Amino acid sequence: MPPIQIPEGYMANADGALMPIDKVKPQHLSEDKLVRDLIGSAREISAQLTKFKDIAMSDVQEFRAMIAREYGANKGGAKGNMTLRSYDGELTVQVQVSETIDFGVELQAAKELIDDCVAEWSEGSNDNLKVLVNDAFDVKKEGSIDTGRVLALRRLDITDEKWVTAMNAISDAVRVTGSRTYIRFYETDQKGERKAVSLDLASA
Fold this sequence. Notes:
The chain is of the alpha+beta class. The chain has helices at 26-71, 106-120, 127-136, 147-152, 161-173; strands spanning 10-12, 18-20, 82-85, 91-103, 174-188, 194-196. Strand 5 (174-188) and strand 6 form a beta hairpin.
């Protein structure tokens, strides 16, 4: 929708109607100016933060590449995660990659195999396992399965062939649907505790 063309001497209200400025209450004019000034400043700061993040990410990736070139080593960890520290250990920069995970159709086969296992082992001591499995496959409020709980089943030390097949099916079902990269900054305070350098207005 194209923006409303506002004639000189008028301003638009929340319904889009044009009002003569001299008919608008002074306190409403003052509020409008204050809000527009603050939003303008917030947009400038937001743009600066975006630029800073781009520069910071570029710098740490360049450092990673330098280490790889000079030593043939990988400064980062799994999935691109990386921790850099000042020489005195007081300052830390962390890069973390967070992946969004979903499951494919293999998960249904895994669930059927797991149900078979639980049914076969349902006597006595395996009641806790049954609760664990049911919790893992319980659909959350937003309509999706708790990926963390499902993936945690693979850590159980169970060697039954059917269970192992089910865990392989879970692994095959995993789909990485997206990822986001975060960069965080920490410093050590006078008490020796690590504190985040806040770049968030809510926690500043």
